[in-house]
Design a protein that fits this description.
With about 450 residues, the chain is an alpha+beta fold. It has three domains: about 260 residues, FAD/NAD(P)-binding domain (3-Layer(bba) Sandwich), CATH 3.50.50.60; about 90 residues, 2-Layer Sandwich (Alpha-Beta Plaits); about 60 residues, no CATH class. Helices cover about 40% and strands about 20% of the residues. Strands 11, 12, 13, 14, 15 and 16 form a six-stranded antiparallel beta sheet that branches. Helix 1 links the parallel strand 1 and strand 2. Helix 1 packs parallel to helix 6, helix 1 runs parallel beside helix 9 and helix 3 packs parallel to helix 9. The longest helix has 23 residues. The chain is globular. The mean pLDDT is about 95. Bound molecules: flavin-adenine dinucleotide (FAD). The site of flavin-adenine dinucleotide (FAD) has 37 residues, from helix 1, strand 2 and helix 9. The site of flavin-adenine dinucleotide has 37 residues, from helix 1, strand 2 and helix 9. This is 2-polyprenyl-6-methoxyphenol hydroxylase-like FAD-dependent oxidoreductase. Keywords: Monooxygenase, Oxidoreductase. It comes from Asanoa ferruginea. InterPro entries: FAD-bd, FAD-dep_Monooxygenase_BioMet, FAD/NAD-bd_sf.
């Protein structure tokens, strides 16, 4: 049993705390935002969470998140459903002619999801009731306590110090762990960092959940659209564009946003509800990855980073919470199998496991995003995007084939809900050939919807 400090009570911090406490550790979670979580029913209206930029932006939990949560922390799923979280089969969002008859095994595509404040309020309530978990809110960590290259605790605003056997940074996208380590005399972690380049224009709705018409992420010329079911008769819709595409910035105006969405037959029914006021806009989202073992040596021991504090990307694929959950499970397992007194070994093993098991998920997301952003920029320039990367052509063909073949629709759904990897798909005998036969000659944007010119006209004419 170790004394563990978890920095940050966001999605990963709370999940990590519960998993570690369940495994016998004494866990204290330190959260900067002072507000106590309201009851889930009041969380959307009442919870002020400036520490999480994306707090009010659309979120959907992947089916893999539900699968892992049901296995690891089933009471979270129970509490989420009790709070009005929606259990929904993501394959069922496709029209019947695309998915065919229901088959054995299709239940794997089920998820349970909610608006982010509701989801986090549920996690916070379950974590608060978990033995060996203490959550201290209004506690801002400002640096690290060290002995040589070993982190032994944290410093906090107000002059507090807290000691621990292990510090787990779950401070999210804006985590300052890198600068704290350098200030403490450690070597600089390896950091890759760039603006992901996308802008989100999201709205939440309430009413009668629309019938599903297509995948939750839809790719069109100049914009992607997310249609995300939520809790208690709510859902959200987001348009995602390139940040360089100035002509689309009018989407921050609700009337123009409505006019734009009206042109997309698969997404327009999702705007038939009571909208929350205004359009939530988020830009300047970073892709960031940090490595804490440099040239084979940990920059410090006694500290690890989990979830967005380790790596984060543009979120249009909706993978952040699932990657964070898998990462937290991995940390629990490494600590379970490693002598906690062997601080060096803990950090090395977690680094190796992270590199092998979750870094490919991050890299895959980055790969998709880079292509998609380049494609959106090509759309704005009036150029057809044809990169010299057969995997991109294969990915587009997979989607196109999923529109006409129920088997491929399932394979595509497994990919997008993180139940399978691209390698799983490519290794199935005959499947890549079938995908190329059915999808390779599809139009660049196979879904019905406006081209760039019509989209601009809708925004400007409203
Ligand atoms: C626009 C947008 C949409 C998204 N949509 C999805 C989606 O549909 N599905 C999905 O799975 N993921 C989505 N994500 C990603 C998801 O939000 C993150 O992966 C997830 O929140 C990461 O959890 P975390 O605990 O690592 O960080 P966070 O949830 O950001 O929590 C970090 C916490 O640390 C606290 N903190 C920071 N610094 C300190 C400090 N010094 N002292 C004390 N506390 C501190 C913060 O206040 C905060 O509470 C989206 C992200 C964005 C930006």
């Amino acid at each position: 049993m170790s004394r563990i400090l978890v920095l940050g009570a966001g999605l990963c911090g709370l999940t990590t705390a519960m998993l570690l406490a369940r495994d016998g550790h004494e866990v204290t979670v330190l959260e900067r935002d002072p507000a106590e979580p309201p009851a889930p029913a009041d969380a959307w209206q009442a919870w002020h969470r400036p520490g999480v930029n994306q707090f009010r932006l659309p979120h959907l939990m992947a089916a893999r998140w539900r699968v892992e949560m049901e296995a690891e922390l089933p009471e979270v799923i129970g509490a989420l459903e009790a709070a009005g979280g929606l259990r929904i089969n993501l394959l069922g969002l496709l029209p019947a002619e695309r998915r065919g008859e229901w088959r054995d095994g299709d239940e794997r595509f089920e998820t349970v999801t909610a608006r982010r404040p509701v989801l986090e309020a549920v996690l916070a309530a379950v974590a608060a009731g978990t033995s060996r978990v203490t959550i201290r809110r209004g506690f801002t960590v400002s640096g690290l306590l060290t002995e040589g290259s070993r982190v032994t605790g944290v410093l906090a605003e107000g002059g507090h110090t807290l000691r621990a056997d292990l510090v787990v940074d779950c401070g999210g996208r804006r985590s300052a762990l890198g600068s704290w380590l350098i200030a403490a005399g450690a070597r600089r972690p390896v950091e890759e960092r760039a603006d992901c380049g996308f802008v989100y224009y999201g709205r939440h709705f309430q009413g009668r959940l629309p019938e599903g018409q297509g995948n939750v992420l839809q790719r069109y010329e100049s914009a992607s659209i997310l249609t995300l079911p939520g809790d208690n008769g709510t859902w959200s819709v987001a348009l995602i564009t390139s940040g360089r595409d100035k002509a689309l910035r009018g989407l921050r105006d609700p009337a123009r946003w409505d006019a734009a969405l009206a042109g997309y037959p698969l997404a327009a029914p999702w705007c038939d509800g009571e909208p929350a006021e205004g359009v939530d806009v988020i830009a300047g989202i970073e892709d960031r990855h940090r490595g804490f073992v440099v040239d084979g040596e940990p920059v410090a021991t006694g500290v690890v980073a989990v979830g967005d504090a380790w790596a984060c990307t543009n979120p249009s694929l909706g993978r952040g919470a699932t990657i964070g959950l898998l990462h937290a499970i991995g940390l629990r397992d490494v600590l379970h199998d490693t002598d906690p007194e062997d601080h060096d070994k803990v950090v090395r093993r977690f680094h190796d496991w992270t590199s092998a098991a979750v870094e490919p998920l991050y890299r895959g997301t980055l790969w998709y995003d880079r292509h998609r952003l380049a494609e959106l920029d090509a759309d704005a320039a009036g150029v057809h995007y044809r990169p010299d990367d057969p995997r991109w052509a294969f990915s587009l063909a997979t989607f196109a084939a999923s529109l006409v073949d129920p088997d491929v629709a399932r394979e595509y759904q497994a990919l997008t809900t993180m139940l399978a990897t691209p390698d799983d798909l490519v290794s199935q005998p005959g499947l890549p050939e079938k995908i190329m036969r059915l999808g390779a000659s599809a139009p660049a944007y196979p879904l019905p919807g406006p081209g760039r010119r019509e989209l601009l006209a809708a925004i400007e004419g409203s």
